[in-house]
Amino acid sequence: MGPLAFFETGNGVLLLGALAALIVLLWDWRVGLIVLFIEQLGVGALAVGVENAPVQMMLVQTFIIGLSCAMLATSGMQVQLGRTGRQSGGWFFRLLVLGLLAAALMSLDLRFVLPNVSPAITRLFGWLGLITLLMLGLGDHALFTAVALLLWSVLGYAVATFYAPVAEVMIVIGLVELAIAFACSYLILAERLPQMERAARAQAAARAVEMRASASQSVATLPSAANPSPLTRKAQRDATQLVDAVPTTSAAPPAPAAPDTVQTSSATQPPTSAPDILRPNQGGS
Question: What's this model's pTM, rounded to 2 decimal places?
């Protein structure tokens, strides 16, 4: 299959197993979707090149997985999903779990048997199945659940092409994969819907407060003697305090006006006549 022939070698099989473990180790939804599509390409190359699976069926499966990854990525970007999406423990914990799983797989000598299938492909499918179960056990986010279920569907589709390369079976598996992608995309959007509604309400309330504040400021700037603005009232209070702070000098009380009044009245009165005894006797003269 041209450039995909690398996955038919032993190094290609090891690379597919390492990339599957990288999904659990990094726990990044972007990495998960990219690795899922690469796993589909690698498993399809193995199925066609080693087990002689129909090429058309693998092309249809690759298109369905690519479409599912595009839908999930669109939902993740639409809700601005974070880098990790609720990690289950730290990277060291997940690395320890992967190491224990690999050690148990090698020490217990678990043999995954698929009749008439290459042992390398069988071991790869067993490892990918364990990684899928580990993702379902550690993750509680809809996107990682979708990645795990779609990875499981990739394995199921490849096994179906080995033993039952019938178009009806392939159609059913493809419809199930599309249903998983649609359902998980809706769950991603529905999970963030309450947060988006709260953010929209908060933005609307903030805009209403800003509009009321701007309206009150515009009303306060209008000249009004009956209802002065807060700035005018503050200026009046400052001016009153400044006037009260200036020390006042007491003026001398004005002189009483009573004596002047008496003198004036006495000066204006006509002179009194002399007694009659002092007047000359006008009749005897």
Answer: 0.68
